[in-house]
Amino acid sequence: MNWLWLVAAGLLEVCWSVGMKYSQGFTRLFPSVFTIVTMIGSFLLLSVTLRTLPLGTAYAVWTGIGTVGAAIAGFILFREPVTVWRIVFLVMIVSGIAGLKFVAGE
């Protein structure tokens, strides 16, 4: 169950990073509130998972989901360039996340 909470925390990290972009430096009310609420939710869910998952694994998976998700959101929402090298390195991050899940033994 903690892995599901960790994935949810990572997805909320994607939400707050996208919200931060839309908030334009916290100058727009709704995106700023959205960013803060999803940030708090992400941290709370991460803290729940840290009760049983190793810190290094949980943090790496959380940031990895956030990194890959934010990159994909950037491709889709902000028309950031999709290059072969970006895809290669994102696949490497996903491989690392999968590897950490595999060796964590949970």
Q: How are helices and strands ordered from N to C?
A: HHHH
What percentage of the residues does DSSP assign to strands (E)? under 5%
Helical residue percent band: over 70%
Shape: flat
Q: N-to-C terminal Cα separation, in Å? A: 10 Å
**Total of DSSP H or I helical runs spanning 4+ residues:** 4
Largest sheet: none
Structural class: mainly alpha
Count the beta strands.
0
- The rounded Rg comes to 15 Å
Low-confidence stretches: none
The overall pLDDT average reads: 94
Structure description:
This protein has 4 helices and no strands. It is mainly α and 106 residues long. It is flat, with a radius of gyration of 15 Å. The N and C termini lie close together (10 Å).
Explain the layout of strands and helices.
Elements: H1 2-23, H2 29-49, H3 55-77, H4 84-104
Helix pairs in contact: 1-2, 1-3, 3-4
Write a compact overview of the structure shown:
The protein is an all-alpha fold and 106 residues long.
Features:
single chain, 106 residues, mainly alpha, 4 helices, 0% strand
